[in-house]
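Researcher: Quick test of sequence recovery. Tokens follow.
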């Protein structure tokens, strides 16, 4: 069965479906953050479960293809090692899946946190869009808005 799946879901097809499939989740997060659909499908475990399933499939696919996972630890050695890793398709698609999952998780956290503080969804709109493209910068912008909105600075919540 896995062989049948792997003939249909090539790495390029998975990349395409990941990029198209993540858009509805972000659309709901950005435009309908207070809706029931957002709470049930986007801010729940559902998208992370879906992306994790794809991630596990990719790890398994490259494991049976005899990909050297130990080589991934070279990314900590130097910038040139990281550059070499990004030239490998296996590392690139696994990293991209990781990136999409983490950014979506951060977007969900922003929406859930803004709900707790009863923030206006317009205030959250721009940090969410920036989080979609560059996760850490969007979270930082949200945190700055949150400080002024909540009128307090906390290092943890």
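Model:
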């Amino acid at each position: 069965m896995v062989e049948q799946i792997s003939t249909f879901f090539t790495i390029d097809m998975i990349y395409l479906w990941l990029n198209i499939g993540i858009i509805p989740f972000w659309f709901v997060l950005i435009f309908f953050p207070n809706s029931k659909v957002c709470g049930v499908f986007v801010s729940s475990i559902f998208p992370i479960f879906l992306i994790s399933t794809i991630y596990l499939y990719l790890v398994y696919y490259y494991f049976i293809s005899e990909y050297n996972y130990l080589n991934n630890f070279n990314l900590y050695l130097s910038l040139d090692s990281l550059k070499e890793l990004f030239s490998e398709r296996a590392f690139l698609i696994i990293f991209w899946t990781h990136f999409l999952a983490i950014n979506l998780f951060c977007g969900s956290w922003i929406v859930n946190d803004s709900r707790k503080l009863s923030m206006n969804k317009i205030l959250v709109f721009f940090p969410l869009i920036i989080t979609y493209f560059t996760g850490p910068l969007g979270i930082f912008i949200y945190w700055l808005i949150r400080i002024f909105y909540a009128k307090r600075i906390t290092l943890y919540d």
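Helices lie at 2-8, 11-31, 36-42, 46-64, 79-86, 89-116, 121-133, 135-150.
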